[in-house]
Design brief:
single chain; 124 residues; alpha+beta; Nuclear Transport Factor 2, Chain: A; 2 domains; four-stranded antiparallel sheet; 4 helices; 4 strands; 25% strand; rod-shaped
Length: 124
């Protein structure tokens, strides 16, 4: 093997882009080093120009990690609450807490209407 072949192999390795599995592994290892040891669930990995964007679900949060495709360096990361992301996507999210509030409100209105003598709404 000549020196030219070695140089070509080194250049080929430098320009080789990572794949989705490799960047997901980099992102999850990075999040583990930050202290998120449990509940890591990869959601999405996408390549935009020369930057991989990896979304990883945590226990109650979602982490977005941006990784340079050529240097394998983490350029940026962000961790958001899942509730904030879900709340922004819908006006009134259906959560167990919201269902309990609606049920309690309905029960309270029935009791108050019975105490006030409004019998026309309910056939008792």
């Amino acid at each position: 093997m000549s020196a030219d072949d070695e140089t070509y192999d080194e250049e080929e390795e430098e320009t080789k882009l990572l794949n989705a599995e490799e960047v997901t592994l980099i992102a999850t290892n990075f999040l583990k080093r930050l202290g998120n040891k449990q509940g890591l669930k990869p959601i999405k990995a996408s390549l935009e120009e020369e930057l991989y964007i990896v979304e990883v679900g945590l226990l109650k949060k979602i982490a977005t990690v941006q990784i340079d495709a050529t240097t394998e360096q983490i350029k940026e990361y962000e961790i958001k609450d899942k509730e904030q992301q879900e709340a922004s996507s819908s006006f009134f999210p259906i959560t167990p807490k919201n269902i309990m509030v609606l049920g309690a409100t309905a029960a309270a209105s029935i009791v108050i209407s019975a105490l006030l003598g409004i019998q026309s709404l309910l056939p008792f």
